[in-house]
Amino acid sequence: MIPNQWYVVLDAAEVSKKPLGVKRFGVDMVFWRDAAGEIACQVDKCCHRGVRLSLGEVKGGCIECPFHGWQFDRAGQCTLVPSNGKNARIPKKFKVQSYPVREAFGWIWLYWGEVEDEQTLPDIRYFKTLQDPRFRSGTFQELWPVHYTRSVENQLDVTHLAFTHAKTIGNPKKPIVDGPLFDWIDEDTMRFFPVTQPDVGNVAKKADEIDMSKVRGFLDFRFPNMWQLCISEKFINFAAFVPVDDEHCITYIRVHQRFFPVPILGDWLVSVMNIFNRRVLGEDRRMVVSQRPIRSELEMDELLVQGDRPITEYRRRRQELKDAAAEGRAPSSIAGKTNGPKDDDGTRSTTAMEEVLAGEDTTA
Fold first, then answer.
1. Ordered alpha helix ranges (H), 105-160
2. Minimum mean pLDDT among 168-172, 174-178, 180-184, 354-358: which range?
3. Which of 339-353 are b and which e, b meaning 16 or more Cβ less than 10 Å from the residue's Cβ?
4. pLDDT tens, 300-336?
5. pLDDT over 90 for what percent of the chain?
6. What are the strands, taking DSSP E only, across 14-72?
7. Domain 5-120 in this protein, CATH class
8. Dihedral over alpha carbons 267, 269, 271, 274 (to 10 degrees)
9. What residues have CB less than 8 Å from 88, skipping those under 6 apart?
10. For the segment 46-96, what is each residue's pLDDT rounded down to a tens digit?
């Protein structure tokens, strides 16, 4: 894992009044809401006799172990040992490990890393394009037997479209991938543009040879585990690649549309879109679960080509973020790095859809 990051770990709708036991980052965790609806997360193991706290229930602002009735607050501190009496002193060591969690943008986020003071943690950074209240959205998830890095890289892979998705989103008559043009729009976010061409004896263009006026959609990946596909300003797919353990991950897909921003018709369209998304993801799954090894790293026994540039950029940046955290330093600056055509002022040329989204985006 890349430490000291906010990870999307759950759809917020999954956590209700009943405690939810799940595995994340190889750890059995319990998520629950207190009486005010605030999210809490702890190791799913009572410090008394090791029973799963997720089998218990929430009482007021605490989760109660079903075995002996011990209660723990959102910080993990034990507040009641019934066999000792409600007025008995409780040692500070009677606690379970808790994790910083927040609910934002319809997701549950967990901060994975060293925490001295939760008040000093960085803000959660979500895609501004998805914060338009006119969007109607719907979510589904799939568990895959691979490390989350393989799921991430599958969504950065442009060259597989003509083959893996020949019957859905790909065009088998356009196997050539120009570029791909990429742009680090900030220190943690890479944007890239899939441009495919038929093979009529030509070769793939370099990124700076691409005519930006003909480029429409784009994809963004934001570390550590978020991705969006902007098909148009009214249709955006979001994905979160959630680490379960070293051999499993969950991919959450949330479609956003505002062709019909009204409840009944809009929700019907969302459900139809997600039927199609499930089919596309099924095509991906068949390939990705067969990859070996099931985890990707910077140095691997793979021979990559020009069209794999988003994958190599991801691997390099992921390794840099891990190394910087291990060495206690700030990661190297990468914002503004691009391989695309530039305007006279030296900045990368923008596409028409980027300009539309920038004009509509008023959410900080």
1. 148-154
2. 354-358
3. bbeeeeeeebbebeb
4. 999 999 999 999 999 999 999 999 999 999 999 998 8
5. 86
6. 20-24, 27-33, 39-43, 57-59, 62-64, 71-72
7. mainly beta
8. -130
9. 81
10. 999 999 999 999 998 999 999 999 999 999 999 999 999 999 999 999 999
| Residues pairing with 191 in the sheet | 183, 220
Distance from CA of residue 177 to its chain's centroid? Answer: 25
Of 3.40.50.1980, 3.90.380.10, 3.30.479.10, 3.40.190.10, which CATH number belongs to 128-360?
Answer: 3.90.380.10
pLDDT band at 213 (very low <50, low <70, confident <90, very high): confident
Beta bridge partners, 347, equal none
Q: How many CB atoms lie under 10 A from the CB of residue 173?
A: 11
Core vs surface per residue 1-31: b (16+ CB within 10 A) or e: bbebbbbbbbbeeebeeebbebebbeeebbb
At 292 the pLDDT is 97
Specify the domain boundaries for CATH 3.90.380.10 within the chain. 128-360
